[in-house]
């Protein structure tokens, strides 16, 4: 009981989560974003072409005109959002919690304290694995909206992060 | 304390009646379509055959119940430390429950059991969700004695070192059984039945009227001549009167249904305190009982509307931590209709103190504008677009537009007015709702993760949204003072990260 103190905390002096400097995703991940973008755009071009090949009676000149006007705008839209989205994504590991930031129009930040982490998983997509990247997935006891996924981290670093988190969780138990 | 439980015991003799009624209930449930057919053709059936077959049915069920009674025995095996239940007429089942695995022994009484004057004893064990041992008919003294014997052995196994405390525990339990911590009166249930579920009732009303109106229109289309000929004969006043009469009837029926539903579901709602956890039991025909552990509670929601406030009652909903999302819905516990004093007693028990409101945060006025845009602007736009370009027939329903705007506008306005976030040192309370005003109460230590969101054009305005994720669900507050919110997030994170406080 002698060591027990209960001083008032100055809340303005607490470490600020909003002042954290975020690490952006690995530059190789940009390639993944671009490849995904190309796949989506090709599918969206090929799908109407295939349709017009098998069912030509459905495609009038007017529909082609609408498709020709709408699709490029949509493509530019998707491309801008993917690229900006990549640039806006970032993560940070503090002493006691992990932060992840994302979002183009709205800035979303999620904070998970280490002593609330239930388990950690590594996920490698097809393209990411080829480039030596991995995704770190962090789960809590809350609903799925409170789980956190950090894509585009080098495999070795991702494993280190996993080890770090496991260590932190172990310490809590 | 003289009953020798080591010898196999039968249930109370009057318990045959309980078994009889339960069997009857089960058969009635299984054969309800046949019963329905017979009820409709009542006049066509030979009455003598009906009476004879009914008598035969009762005799058969009676014999089955008697055999069930004869074949049901329970005993305490003190050598192997097991509680043994034997049952079954043709297929024999023997259930053996190890005494040290028994978690709870509950004594309940359903409506039928109350009529006959016997009790039901349920044994809950760790490891499985369903009740493993159930004795359907037992006298009160015997039930209490058996309960203490079952739990006596358990506490001996745990606490050989400190016998005094275990003795106390047993004594406490018995006294707790005698006087429940809370009992919701019949009157309160009546009040709840009359005042809740308006949303559903209104939706039902609207559905009903729209179908009636459509049929009426169809009728008019098919038979224009008929309408012209006879339409004039119908007195306008009479139509209006019958419509009004009809509306009153409908409201009356909805209220009656609500009242009956509430009473059936929550009749004799009692809360007892047992070993630091709460035991809830309720129900008219079948008594349900659940165990509530205060440390598992994540969110407490209180809800009351204008009428309920005037009557001095409110509804409580308790959300516990769940392992899977599927269970989330089922795990919320409802306590309908308790008074303010009872609410405070429950909150005191769950949180060790009564949540105070503290600092109040309001949403920005842009939230009101945005929700009006979503719920009025967009549907109206769609309505006009459809009317002008696709089918101008929808404009015939234009009279609905002002009603819709006023109704939805009022709802959105009250939602905005009631939307508040209260923060103090120990609690976070979110208030929301237009008619039923809900207060969601959480402790900062229950937070699993925090997410924030801010639109880029809101940066200069200093407004943003936060979501607090807990194991029992999320709590979100939109467009509040972002600087203050961020300051509190830092504080909560600090508290979570520096303490070992368990969220479960």
UniProtKB/TrEMBL annotation, chain A:
Keywords: Membrane, Transmembrane, Transmembrane helix. InterPro entries: YdbS-like_PH. It holds the Pfam family bPH_2. The chain crosses the membrane at residues 29-51, 63-86. Residues 86-164 form the YdbS-like PH domain. This is YdbS-like PH domain-containing protein. It comes from Flavobacterium segetis.
Automatic annotation (TrEMBL), chain B:
It holds the Pfam family bPH_2. InterPro entries: UCP026631, YdbS-like_PH. Residues 71-148, 267-348, 418-474 form the YdbS-like PH domain. The chain crosses the membrane at residues 12-28, 48-67, 201-219, 239-260, 368-389, 395-414. It comes from the Bacteria. Keywords: Membrane, Transmembrane, Transmembrane helix. PANTHER family: UPF0699 TRANSMEMBRANE PROTEIN YDBS, UPF0699 TRANSMEMBRANE PROTEIN YDBT. This is Putative membrane protein. It comes from Flavobacterium segetis.
């Amino acid at each position: 009981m002698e060591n027990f103190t209960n001083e008032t905390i100055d809340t303005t002096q607490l470490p600020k989560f909003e002042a954290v400097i975020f690490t952006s995703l690995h530059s190789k991940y940009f390639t993944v974003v671009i490849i995904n973008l190309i796949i989506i755009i090709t599918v969206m071009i090929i799908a109407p072409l295939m349709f017009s090949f098998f069912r030509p009676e459905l495609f009038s000149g007017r529909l082609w005109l609408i498709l020709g006007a709408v699709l490029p705008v949509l493509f530019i839209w998707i491309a801008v959002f993917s690229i900006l989205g990549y640039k806006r994504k970032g993560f940070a590991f503090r002493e006691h919690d992990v932060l992840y930031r994302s979002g183009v129009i709205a800035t979303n930040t999620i904070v998970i304290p280490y002593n609330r982490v239930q388990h950690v998983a590594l996920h490698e997509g097809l393209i990411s694995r080829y480039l030596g990247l991995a995704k770190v997935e962090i789960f809590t006891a809350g609903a799925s909206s409170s789980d956190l996924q950090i894509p585009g981290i080098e495999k070795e670093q991702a494993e280190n992060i996993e080890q770090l988190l496991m260590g932190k969780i172990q310490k809590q138990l | 304390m003289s009953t020798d439980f080591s010898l196999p015991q039968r249930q109370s003799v009057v318990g045959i009646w309980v078994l009889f009624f339960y069997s009857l209930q089960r058969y009635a449930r299984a054969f309800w379509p046949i019963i329905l057919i017979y009820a409709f053709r009542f006049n066509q059936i030979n009455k003598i055959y009906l009476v004879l077959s009914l008598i035969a049915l009762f005799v058969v069920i009676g014999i089955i119940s008697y055999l069930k009674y004869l074949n049901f025995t329970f005993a305490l095996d003190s050598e192997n430390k097991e509680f043994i239940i034997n049952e079954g007429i043709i297929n024999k089942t023997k259930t053996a429950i190890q005494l040290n695995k028994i978690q709870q022994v509950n004594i309940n009484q359903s409506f039928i059991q109350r009529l006959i004057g016997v009790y039901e004893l349920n044994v809950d064990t760790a490891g499985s969700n369903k009740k493993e041992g159930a004795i359907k008919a037992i006298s009160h003294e015997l039930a209490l004695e058996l309960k203490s014997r079952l739990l006596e052995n358990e506490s001996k196994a745990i606490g050989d070192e400190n016998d005094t405390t275990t003795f106390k525990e047993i004594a406490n339990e018995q006294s707790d059984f005698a006087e429940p911590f809370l009992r919701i009166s019949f009157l309160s249930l009546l009040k709840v039945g009359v005042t809740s579920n308006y949303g559903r009732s209104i939706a039902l009303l609207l559905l009903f009227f729209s179908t009636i109106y459509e049929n009426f229109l169809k009728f008019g289309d098919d038979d224009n001549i008929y309408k012209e000929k006879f339409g004039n004969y119908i007195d306008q006043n009479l139509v209006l009167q019958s419509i009004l009469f009809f509306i009153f009837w409908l409201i009356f029926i909805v209220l009656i249904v609500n009242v009956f539903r509430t009473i059936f579901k929550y009749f004799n709602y009692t809360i007892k305190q047992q070993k630091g956890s709460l035991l809830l039991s309720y129900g008219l025909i079948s008594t349900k009982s659940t165990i509530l552990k205060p440390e598992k509670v994540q969110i407490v929601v209180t809800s009351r509307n204008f009428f309920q406030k005037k009557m001095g009652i409110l509804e409580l909903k308790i959300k516990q931590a769940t392992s899977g999302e599927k269970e989330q819905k089922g795990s919320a516990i409802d306590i309908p209709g308790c008074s303010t004093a009872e609410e405070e007693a429950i909150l005191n028990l769950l949180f060790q103190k009564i949540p105070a409101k503290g600092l109040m945060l309001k949403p920005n006025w842009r939230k009101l504008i945005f929700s009006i845009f979503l719920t009025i602007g967009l549907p109206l736009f769609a309505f006009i677009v459809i009317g002008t370009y696709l089918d101008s027939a929808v404009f015939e329903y234009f009279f609905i537009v002002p009603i819709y705007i006023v109704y939805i506008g009022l709802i959105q306005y009250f939602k905005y007015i009631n939307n508040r976030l209260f923060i103090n040192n120990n609690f976070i309370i979110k208030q929301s709702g237009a008619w039923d005003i809900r207060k969601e109460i959480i402790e900062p230590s229950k937070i699993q993760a925090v997410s924030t969101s801010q639109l880029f054009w809101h940066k200069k305005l200093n407004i943003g949204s936060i979501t607090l994720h807990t194991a029992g669900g999320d709590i979100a507050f939109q467009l509040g003072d972002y600087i203050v919110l961020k300051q509190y997030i830092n504080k909560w994170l600090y508290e979570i990260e520096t303490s070992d406080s368990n969220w479960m």
